[in-house]
Amino acid sequence: MTQPILKARGLTKRYGKVTALDRCDFDLMPGEILAVIGDNGAGKSTLIKALSGAVVPDEGSVELDGKKVDFHSPIDAREAGIETVYQTLAMSPALSIADNMFMGREIIQSGVMGKLFRRLDKAKMQEIAREKLNELGLMTIQNINQAVETLSGGQRQGVAVARAAAFGSKVIILDEPTAALGVKESRRVLELIQDVKSRGIPIILISHNMPHVFEVADRIHVHRLGRRLCVIDPKEHSMSDAVAFMTGAQEPPEHPQAA
Ligand SMILES: Nc1ncnc2c1ncn2[C@@H]1O[C@H](COP(=O)(O)OP(=O)(O)OP(=O)(O)O)[C@@H](O)[C@H]1O
After folding, report:
1. What is the spatial distance between Cα 25 and Cα 16, in angstroms, rounded to a whole number?
2. In this predicted complex, what is the ipTM?
3. pTM value?
4. CATH at 204
5. 41 Cα–ligand 1 center, Å
6. Domain containing 193: what range?
7. Which of 117, 137, 167 is the endpoint of a domain?
8. Which residues have C-beta atoms less than 6 Å from ligand 1?
């Protein structure tokens, strides 16, 4: 049987009296798009943070590729191959697309200048950035040296996803990638998500947008009251079923398709 690429068991995170995660289980299978849905305050963000090193759970375990991992910071998770694109994109608007793509992992020139003065290999970074954006069909971005602040919302999101796809070797987490976008831009981002999937990289998609979730997700993790309520197949359930499970208006399916 196929093993999950990312697996969590019994994750618990308390903030004072609030239990944001309550013995939560989670499974992401290789190559899939797994949507995570849930009401406001259900604990989706906390789950994602626990999987990406931004929050250290009080209890529970996380396994990546069958090996136990203990992330203490997002850098730990990144180094292990988990890239997260947050709703509030962590980008520097005044810097170029290439600079943003390589922020925090700049390429240093080989030779003396690099060794002694840590001089950056700008040409190399631009070349790789262009290649990555092209690969993902982001051809609308003409100039790799253009400042990110001059891009549209959808293009910015595209750069963020391309950055994640370029470096996230194992898992990409997207937190509400279409929330701030118009119809056309959302469409482009959804296509991009499918492009990334077709390259074999599994994606966790947190979204409140049910049509978007139902369009791209292979499976849907329904989160409620800090834990996984069930996992549903979007081909077998309607959007109104999903909302009813999520809000507690309807009992979840008897045999939750855990993984
Ligand atoms: N840093 C924090 N300090 C205190 N309480 C927190 C903190 N982060 C989250 N919580 C609480 O934990 C619970 C779960 O929050 P979380 O943000 O994970 O939910 P969510 O499902 O992502 O919600 P939304 O869809 O509204 O973003 C909420 O009750 C929230 O108030």
Report:
1. 22
2. 0.96
3. 0.87
4. 3.40.50.300
5. 5
6. 1-81+171-259
7. 167
8. 15, 18, 20, 38, 40-46
